[in-house]
Amino acid sequence: MYFDELDLNDNVLDALYDMRFETCTPVQEQCIPEILKGNDLLGVAQTGTGKTAAYLLPILSKLDDGGYPKDAINCVIMSPTRELAQQIDQAMQGFGYYLNDVSSVAIYGGNDGNRYDQELKSLSLGADVVIATPGRLISHISMGNADFSRVSFFVLDEADRMLDMGFSEDIKKIAQLLPPTCQTIMFSATMPDKIEELAKTLLKNPVVVKLAVSKPAEKIKQTAYVCYETQKLGIIQDIFKQGDLKRVIIFSGKKQKVKAINRALMRMHVNSGEMHSDLDQAERDQMLYKFKSGQIDVLVATDILARGIDIDDIAMVINFDVPHDAEDYVHRIGRTARADRDGVAITFINEEDVHFFKQIEKLLEKEVEKLPLPEELGEGPEYKEGRSQRTSAKSRRRKDRDATSHKRKPRRTENERKEKQPKDKQTQDKQIAEKPTAEAAEGSNTKSAPVTAEDHSTESAQQQEQRKPRRRRGNNKPRQSEADRQDQPTGDADNASNNASVNASVKADNASESSDNASENRSRRNGNKARQGKGKQNNVKEGDKQESNAQQGKAQQGNKTGKGNGKQQAKQGKQANGRQAKQGDKQPSKQDKQANGQQAKQGDKQPAKKRSRKPRQQRSEQESQPVSTKYAKTAGMSPVVNPSQDSGLKSLLKKPLKWLKKLGK
Question: For the whole model, what pTM was predicted?
Fold first, then answer.
C-alpha cells in the first residue's frame, strides 16, 4: 500500500515525498488507520519494521488538522533511552518539516543548565509533542513544571524495555495524571506477560496488531562460533582480515568488557570506539555521530544501543557474549538488515553459554549454523549441554573476577605480602590424627574433674597470650594481665621485689656519690681560694713589718671565716646527702610494696620515676644586686634588658672577670 492511499494530511505527505518514502510497511499499513480513528492500539512487531513512523505520521496529521489547544501539551511519547529519544525527535523534525504550527521538545537527562532551561520553557509554554525518558519527566512533574491535564495522545515506545529497566511504577504514575479521554498507543518488539498486564491497566478496548513476534528479519544471515573465551579476539581478527568491513557493531553485556574489547581492537589498529553508560551524554552523542558519519568503522557497545537505534548500512552485528534473554538477542541482531537491506549476525558461544543459546534457537524455531574455528586457533569446546556445561558458583566467581580485573586494586600491606608457608602432607596428617585424640582426652578430663576458678583464669590467660599485646605510649613493654599476676608464683614475686630493691639502692648510692663529689669540689675550690690568699700575704715586703703583721691578722680572720664557710658548706652537703639517702631508702620500700600487691590494686599504672636534683646554690649578696642603676627596677626580667642599647652594660658583659674584680673591691 502507498502512503497516498491513507487518509494523511497533505503537509505530511509532502514531507514523505521529499524523504523518498512511498510504500508502507505491514505495521504501518495496519496501525495508521486505527490511530486515525482514535482507537487505543497495542502494536507488536519485529525490529526495523517502521514502528516509529506508524504512530508519528497519524498523530502529526491530526495535530495539523487542528482542534487541539495551542497553549497545552497535546502528545507525550515515552522512550527508554536517551539515544532513542533523540532519534524520535529527529524523525519528528523530518516528518513535520512543513508543519508550522506543531512544535516538539526532547527531554532527557545528562544535559547542562541551558538545556534544562529550554526544557522548562517548552513545558511552560505548552509544546505540542513532548518526547521524554521516564526519569527526567518524573523530575519535572515532581517540581510542578508540566501540566498533563489536556494531553490527547500518550505513546509508549519499546514498552518491554522500559519494564525491564524498572520504569513500570513511573509509567503508571504518569498515566494517572492523564485525562480519561486520552488515546493510548503502545509499541513493543516482544510480547511478554508483563506487557499484557500493563496493557490491561492502561489501554481501553485496544486494537492488537501482531506481526512476526520476537523474530528477527528474514534477510539476516545468522551464524555462530563455538569457542573458548580466549579465542574470541582471534576470531574477530580473522573476520576483519577476510573483508573490508566498515560498519560493524560488537555487543557485550558488561561495560567493563566493552572497554577491554575496544582497547584490544585499538591494539590491532582497528578504527573503533566504545558506547556505554559510563560516558557523559555529550560523549555518547559525539560517539554516535562519529559512527553514523563514518569516522568510526567499529563500535563496541552495551545493550543501550540495541533498542530502536536506526543506523543505515550496518553490515554486521557481532555478539561477543550470548545474551541470557532470548528477546535481547532479537533486538541486537535487529540493528542490521534494516529497510530491506541484507546483514550478517555472528555470535560467540562460550562453553558456559550453550544453554542460553539453545533457548534462543527454541525461540527462533530453527538451528543456527555453527562455523568452524580458524586453524591457527585450534579446536573449541563441544556444543553439548550437560552437567559440566551448567554454570556453577565457581564459574560465576571467575566471571566476576575477570570483569573486575581491569580495576586498580589497593596496595597490600607487609603482612598481606608475606606468603603463607605450605604445610607438608605429613604434618597435616599428624594434625588431623591428633585432633580427635586431643578432643577425647579433653572430654574425659572435663567429665572427671570439675571446673575451678583457676582453670578459668588459665584459659583467659591463654586467650590473652594469643592476642597481640597493645603498645602504650612511652613504654614498649606489654601489659601484664590480672590473671598472669594471680597465677605468678611467690618465688617470682620475691625475685621481682629483690630486683626492684637492688635497683633502687643502686640509684640511691649513685645519687649520694654524686652529691659527695659535688660537695668535695666546692670545698676544694674554697681551699684553693684560701691558699691564694696566704700566698699573697707571704709575699709582703720585710720593711713594712707592722703593716704585714696587721695584714696577717686580717688574713687569719679571713682564714677563720673561710674555714667557717667551708664547714657550713660541708654541713649543707651532708644534709643534702642525708636527704637523698633517705629518699633512696624510701624508694625500694615503695617498689617492694608495689611488687607484693599494690600493682594488682592500681591496675596497669606504673610508678613515675623520680629525677635526682642537685642542691640549689645560694647566691651571695653581691651577686643578687642589680647590674646597673638604670635597670634596677627591671633586674631579672630578661626580655626587658637589652644589652645592645646599653653601652656600659655591653662592655661589662664582654669582660666578666674585670667586672667581678671591681665588685669585689
Answer: 0.51
Strand order in the sheet with 220-226: 272-275, 298-301, 248-251, 316-319, 343-349, 220-226, 369-371
* Under 8 Å between Cβ of 76 and 138: no
Confirm if 163 and 134 have CB atoms less than 8 A apart: no
For 449-493, the pLDDT digits (tens) are 444 444 444 545 555 555 555 555 544 445 554 444 444 444 444
| Strand ordering across the sheet containing 41-45 | 104-107, 129-132, 75-78, 153-156, 183-188, 41-45, 207-211
Q: How many residues appear in the chain?
A: 665
Assign 301 to helix, strand or coil.
Answer: strand
125 DSSP β-pair partners: none
Q: Which residues pair with 419 in a beta bridge?
A: none
Q: Kindly give the interhelix angle for 490-538 and 545-593, rounded to the nearest 10 degrees.
A: 170
Residue recorded with cell 703583721 = 549
β-bridge partners, 249: 299, 317
Task: Give the number of C-alpha atoms closer than 13 A to the C-alpha of residue 278, restricted to the C-beta side.
Answer: 9
Among residues 300, 367, 260, 312, which one has the least CA distance to residue 87?
312
Distant-in-sequence, close-in-space partners of 201: CB < 8 Å, separation ≥ 6? 172, 175
| Pairwise CA distance, residues 429 & 510, whole Å | 61
- Distance, in Å, from the CA atom of 647 to the CA atom of 628, rounded to the nearest integer, reads 12
d(CA 187, CA 51) in angstroms, rounded, equals 7
Let me know: does 339 contact 217? Beta carbons within 8 Å. Answer: no
**Both ends of the chain: CA-CA distance in Å?**
137
310: Cβ contacts below 8 Å, ≥ 6 apart: 48, 52, 87, 338
Do 321 and 257 meet the contact criterion of CB atoms below 8 Å apart?
yes
Assigned C-alpha cell, 379? 579446536
Per-residue pLDDT, 280 = 87
d(CA 583, CA 484): 31
E strand segments, 12-167: 41-45, 75-78, 104-107, 129-132, 153-156
CB 335 within 8 A of CB 305: yes
Three-state SS at 183: strand
DSSP designation for 598: I
CA 110 to CA 87: how far, in whole Å? Answer: 16
Task: Write the single-letter amino acid at 503.
Answer: N
Alpha-carbon radius of gyration of the chain: 50
For the beta carbon of residue 469, count every other beta carbon within 10 angstroms: 13
Nearest to residue 564, comparing CAs of 526, 517, 535?
Answer: 526
Rounded Cα–Cα distance for residues 100 and 129 (Å): 13
Do the beta carbons of residue 162 and residue 78 sit within 8 Å? yes
What amino acid is encoded at 93 in this protein?
A: Q
Give the tens place of pLDDT for each residue, 542-567.
444 444 454 555 545 544 444 454 45
